[in-house]
Write a structure and sequence with these properties.
globular, FAD/NAD(P)-binding domain, single chain, alpha+beta, binds flavin-adenine dinucleotide, about 375 residues
Length: about 375
């Protein structure tokens, strides 16, 4: 048995990393264990949009907190945060109604946003099409990160900032239990570690640890398809761009009074059947990430999602993106799928085993925005502070 830790974190994605961060900030000694040589799951496959504006309830609060934390870390260490705002483009009457209603809500609670006229949208985002853009809701304070850089840089920042952090990569946790008043973690190869508390932040990996706990829950896995253009150095598409289908999908808009009366027009029905809503995000290398779609399988049936990328879905996304924006979408540089776990309640799945092992998985599509805030609260709860 090696040294004893205050906290062992299983999984070094966004959720595990922010649990480690907050425990370290509270003076705890932390070991973070990651099965892969470096994280390659949802945390690096996403858009990197940090968009509290799309969240509701406590998730909005976590998102606002997370935005502030991203900005403050960026002031100390380059973790790839850009303060370039978010926008939701309305393309018809229903979407326009929802952005007005959401603006009224955010005006009431004092979360800054402004309506952009078609003229203002096209001045700010000249690559978007006048035929699509009616009006938009813009959040200047929101940020984005580069998902393929962020997690590695924040680990480097944490290693530089906290001497009480150990990270072990290529180390799969195969067992976790409580005995003799402490939590014990076993890794492949048989080595064991002990801690006061353990956080299991294993993303959508439901088969290795606590499968008996997960199988009793209403958990699913979603497969999301993503596309990346070749570098477009002459293009300037700033920030997080959400579109009409995002307005029709995101939690924040679903809370608006008019949402119940919104109908899906025929031309969007097939897109919605694949859970497609178009988001655009230009990365620092000039490529544009276009996504995404959502297909679902119950846990235990994840294999039904298939291993291939569905080219019909990619074609639908490109066609809709072409209705929205006018940039070169030929000769894509990458296409990929990312997966996340989610619970039917659309909340995170939390469970505490034997008082010391705290499972936090299934945050769904909001983890880059909300993990930091959620983890801060969870660490306070776990250590009773
Ligand atoms: C395509 C896509 C786009 C998205 N876009 C956005 C966005 O723009 N904004 C936003 O807020 N959210 C977005 N999300 C959601 C966000 O990416 C996720 O909510 C978040 O990354 C989940 O983080 P996590 O740490 O829970 O999971 P993961 O990133 O999956 O990390 C879990 C880690 O645990 C490790 N692990 C699992 N089991 C073990 C074990 N037994 N031992 C050791 N290690 C283990 C895995 O290897 C993995 O590295 C997107 C997701 C996807 C897939």
């Amino acid at each position: 048995m090696s040294d004893k830790y205050d906290l062992i974190v299983v999984g070094a994605g966004a959720m595990g990393t922010f649990h480690a961060y907050h425990a370290l900030a509270a003076g705890k000694k932390v070991l973070m264990l990651e099965k892969d040589q470096r994280p390659i799951q949802a945390t690096v496959r996403n858009f990197g949009m940090v968009i509290a504006s799309g969240m509701s309830g406590k998730w909005f609060d976590y998102g606002v907190y997370g935005t502030g934390l991203y900005k403050s870390i960026q002031e100390r260490f380059d973790v790839s945060v850009r303060n370039n705002g978010s926008v939701y483009i309305a393309s018809d009457d229903d979407e326009q109604q929802l952005i007005h209603e959401l603006k009224a809500h955010y005006d009431t609670i004092g979360y800054g946003c402004e309506l952009l006229s078609q003229h203002a949208i096209l001045a700010k985002y000249p690559t978007l099409k006048a035929t699509y853009c009616r009006e938009a809701l813009y959040f200047p304070q929101e940020v984005s990160v580069e998902p393929n850089l962020f997690i590695h840089r924040i680990h480097a920042f944490m290693q530089q900032s906290f001497e009480n952090l150990s990270i072990r990569r290529s180390t799969a946790v195969t067992g976790c239990d409580v005995s003799n008043g402490e939590a014990q973690v076993t890794v492949a190869g048989g080595e064991k570690f002990a801690a006061e508390q353990v956080v299991v932040a294993s993303g959508h990996e439901f088969k290795l640890l606590f499968p008996e706990v997960f199988k009793l829950q209403n958990l699913s896995v979603s497969k999301l398809q993503m596309l990346r253009t070749k570098p477009l150095p002459a293009l300037s598409l700033s920030g997080n761009i959400g579109t009409g289908l995002s307005i029709r999908r995101y939690e924040a808009f679903r809370e608006c009074p008019g949402y119940a009366g919104i109908k899906t027009p025929e031309h969007l029905q097939e897109l919605e059947s694949y859970g497609i809503h178009i988001l655009l995000k230009q990365a620092v290398d000039g490529t544009v990430i276009i996504g995404d779609s959502h297909e679902y399988a119950r846990i235990g049936e994840e294999e039904n999602l298939g291993y291939a990328l569905n080219q019909h879905i990619n074609a639908l996304m490109l066609n809709e993106a072409g209705r929205i924006a006018d940039f070169d979408m030929t000769g894509l540089s990458e296409t990929w799928a990312g997966h996340y776990g989610l619970h039917d309640s659309e909340e995170i799945f939390e469970n505490t085993v034997d008082g010391r092992i705290h499972i936090a998985v299934g945050i769904g599509g909001k983890g880059m925005t909300c993990s930091a805030g959620y983890a801060q609260e969870n660490i306070k709860r776990i250590f009773g502070e």
